[in-house]
Amino acid sequence: MRLDVHLCALVGTPPVSAFLHQLASGLALGGVYAIMALALVMIFQATQLVNFAQGEMAMFSTYFAWRLIDLGWPYWRAFAVTVIVSFFGGIALERIVVRPFANAPALASVIVFIGLALIFNALAGWLYGYSVTDFPTPFDGPPWFGQRYLSAHESGAILVSLVVLAAVYAFFRFTSLGLAMRAAAQNPTSSRLLGVRVGWMLALGWGLAAAIGAIAGMMAAPIVYLDPNMMAGILLYAFAGAVLGGIDNPFGAAFGGFAVGVLENLMGAYVVGSEVKLSVALAIIVGVLAWRPSGLFGRRIVARV
After folding, report:
1. What number does CATH give the domain 3-291?
2. In this predicted model, which residue has the larger pLDDT, 61 or 183?
3. What pTM, to 2 d.p., does this model score?
4. CA distances from 280 to 46, 159, 248, 268 (A)
């Protein structure tokens, strides 16, 4: 189940059916972009910086899941273990690597993030090689409910994305730990005065972002194949979605991820072609930054001078 297979299947189909298929497939990809965008926003809210290593962290977690499945583990057990390991790995990464640069200039932190991306990419290539590998899907088989426009994996990817978004919303809206993390990200000084351990809240945010990114990687791998560079384009699309929806608004960013997935598929199929459709993400980023830097749902900050 790959994009080229879908395109071949569309040859000779009526235009309306082809359009609906591209729209539905765009929603499936958009679900992956949405949860990656959510992971980016979680780090941005706490640090005001974009974690350029988010995609490579997700890729490395996906390789970890692939290794467990290759050893004979059932898919969902490997999925759960990978999410848990990624969560604690994200916490360790923040405490050991990122924390020493907490008070450093922004440029130093950006260099650290880029360095982490290069390290994860090289480490994955060293451990697993650079050959393209199939990644299994738990939603294999015929399309659900006789659906003509979505494969079983695409339907499952959308479902998983919605479940992740709902779980994250419930966590931050209805739990005391989630509320403490939101407070620490938005106003760390006041949160410290109220007894919130801001440092650990930031570490937990990194852990959640790593776990969410791992889910995105495992949902994307059956579509784009598994290799050390698999998340490069996905990270760019996710960043475009975060910018479109508002990089300081988690669920605005998630909406932007779905929107970018649909735009990418439709533009690639009917306007610019699949070879240059990555430029759609770049055009979205530039256009939004020029027209509305805060994004569609982001907050405009007004300062008195």
Report:
1. 1.10.3470
2. 61
3. 0.87
4. 28, 25, 22, 8
